[in-house]
């Protein structure tokens, strides 16, 4: 069977897999609300990790990094559906409903919770679009997104501080951020944005903080962690190279030998 990833209407994304999928790092540029229909999603992010089983809802804040591994159910099928809650829609909603927040959001970046009857009914209402038995007009798609916002605020009024915080990332502690996110294999531009810096400012501050370039520091940091895991935790290179941000195994082996002068099997 063929794996499926579809954008069913402007901001509704449906994923279906029949084999385990290790998805590379994703930069979450907009808030999204997701629902695990079947199978499991193992998510890893700066604050920790979580295993999503069927009937789980997730709300993820914009501007962050996340890595997922997707496992089909015992019946052999993985299904996940998500609604993107972008800034344009949220700003219009806030304007129409006179929503003003008096403080900047600083809480968790990802929320996982079991679906209640309202959320489950909402996501089940999307099934006709998934099954292609119904086509969403732009107006109907907009209504479904607004319904998602209403459900979130109904379930937790404090979500307004997350959804309607339209400020851009401000400069955060660079060293702390890099120590938490070095294993994500994303462009330097994304790292700069997440720390509230322009690319030039990021590179300048990085050199001042670490006395080396981002590329060199990331390579050395990942290799040092690999050395520790292999030597002291008896981990296999094949099990860790992707999680440490290396794109392929051969590049990892080459970099390791170049850095330490020995192969992974020799330590």
Automatic annotation (TrEMBL):
Residue ranges of every copy of the HTH araC/xylS-type domain listed in the record: 172-267
InterPro entries: AraC_XylS_family_regulators, ExsA-like_N, Homeodomain-like_sf, HTH_AraC
Keywords: DNA-binding, Transcription, Transcription regulation
Pfam families, sorted: ExsA_N, HTH_18
Matching Gene3D superfamilies: Homeodomain-like (1.10.10.60)
Domain of life: Bacteria
Keyword Transcription attributed: yes
Molecular function, one GO term: DNA-binding transcription factor activity
Cross-referenced PANTHER family: HTH-TYPE TRANSCRIPTIONAL ACTIVATOR RHAS-RELATED (PTHR46796)
Name assigned to this protein: AraC-type DNA-binding protein
Gene source species: Olivibacter domesticus (Pseudosphingobacterium domesticum)
């Amino acid at each position: 069977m063929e794996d499926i990833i579809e954008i069913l209407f402007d901001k509704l994304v449906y994923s279906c897999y029949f084999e385990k999928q290790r998805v590379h790092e994703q930069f979450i540029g907009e808030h999204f609300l997701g629902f695990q229909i079947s199978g499991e999603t193992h998510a890893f992010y700066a604050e920790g990790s979580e295993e999503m089983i069927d009937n789980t809802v997730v709300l993820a804040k914009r501007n962050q990094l996340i890595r997922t591994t997707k496992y089909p159910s015992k019946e052999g099928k993985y299904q996940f559906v998500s609604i993107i809650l972008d800034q344009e829609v949220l700003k219009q909603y806030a304007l129409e409903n006179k929503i003003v927040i008096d403080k900047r959001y600083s809480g968790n970046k990802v929320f996982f919770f079991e679906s209640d009857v309202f959320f489950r009914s909402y996501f089940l209402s999307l099934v006709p679009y998934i099954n292609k038995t119904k086509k969403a007009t732009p107006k109907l798609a907009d209504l479904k997104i607004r319904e998602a916002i209403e459900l979130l605020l109904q379930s937790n009024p404090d979500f307004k501080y997350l959804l309607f915080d339209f400020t851009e990332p401000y400069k955060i502690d660079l060293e702390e951020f890099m120590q938490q996110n070095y294993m994500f294999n994303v462009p330097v531009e994304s790292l700069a944005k997440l720390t509230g810096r322009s690319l030039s400012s990021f590179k300048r501050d990085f050199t001042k903080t670490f006395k080396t370039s981002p590329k060199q520091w990331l390579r050395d940091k990942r290799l040092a962690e690999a050395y520790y895991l292999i030597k002291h935790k008896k981990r296999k290179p094949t099990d860790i190279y992707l999680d440490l941000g290396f794109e392929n195994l051969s590049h990892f082996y080459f970099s390791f030998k170049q850095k330490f002068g020995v192969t992974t099997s020799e330590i």
